[in-house]
Amino acid sequence: MARLTVALLVLYAFAVPWQYALDLGEPLGNVARIAGVLLLLVAIPAVLARRAWRPPGLLPSLIFLFFLYLSATYLWSIDPLTTLNKIRAYFQVMMVVWIGWEFLETPAHARHFLRAILLGSILLALLTLFNFTSVATTAVIQQSRFTASGQDPNDVARFLDLVFPIAALLLAEDHSIVIRMLAAAYLPLGLLAVVLTASRGGFLGAIVALLAAFFLLARWRPTAAATVAFALAALSTVAAFFVPPETFARLATIPAQFAALDFNDRFGIWTSGAQAFAHAPWLGYGAGNYSLASGLATEDTAHNTFMALLVMGGLVAATLLFAILIATLRSILRASGLTRIAFLAVLVVWIVTASVGSVEENRMTWLLFACFALLPRFAADSARSPSAAPLPATHSQPFASPAPESA
Question: Which one of 59, 77, 89, 404 is CB 3.0 to 4.6 Å from 373, fit for a cystine?
């Protein structure tokens, strides 16, 4: 059962990036939801069959406490039915942290987990390119944003951004030449897909993520960083000929958005949220009630994870999220070398993208936090290994396997 659970975890990680591109409708839902249900159905009896449960670490414990508090907001929610639906959604997306902590027991498991995230992101980028190339020429002229079918452009860009540092890490350190080649291909492919989404927040996140990827590769091999930079420059030249001018025109409005403090009407949404927060600063209005509390249309979202939590769960929820981020930073700093650089970059990119999007109910968010939670465990495993040879200061295998124990 444990092996099956690990296999389903890897399948789930592969499905999350492109989840909305394959939706079977109710009651099944999208492919990640189906994989998540199967994972839960296998994980629960697998845990019950164990003789002892793994003691929870600091980060999984804080995330569990965060979930419990968001669930407790049902007691004072201004719309209990909406909050109840949100509680169910939070459970579906946060459960991967607990299951990953319980079953990803070896560095090999963790490597497969990262590989699955990379492969799923490559598929998402390819589906985005396929959507662009399949649109009729007349439609392309009138259209500026392209995504995989069923996906939101901002979500696509955000997902792709978060994986750039992971791809750089796998390019530098994965044992498989095939995975390293795919990781190298992802960097230009992912950037092209981000550009096609015309997501301004996603484009800024891509700049941050790629700078971190260059820094990581330069620490590994300066020639690798130079090669990737050349490939991206060549891609930019080619893209200028076939990406619609409307796409570049939308991205070119980024400076004007900053100058006007508008951010595509987000500033008004945040102002409404701040006014609602002032009337219920401690406990908030209940999970899922940002729009109702702020007097916005039902379909509106906060477009800012931190503001969303301040309104829905008050200062208590914001404090818990801050504690989660501090614990995450602590986990990252317990790693070493390129692994530390890569996941520190992932955290920074997540904070950047969370500042312009509501990602607390996002499967990709908690998939990555499951990775963060595992870092100190495998750092400790490597440190305990008596025969492990010391690695150079600028290089460390991602979730490196401990040396075999002596007979």
Answer: 59
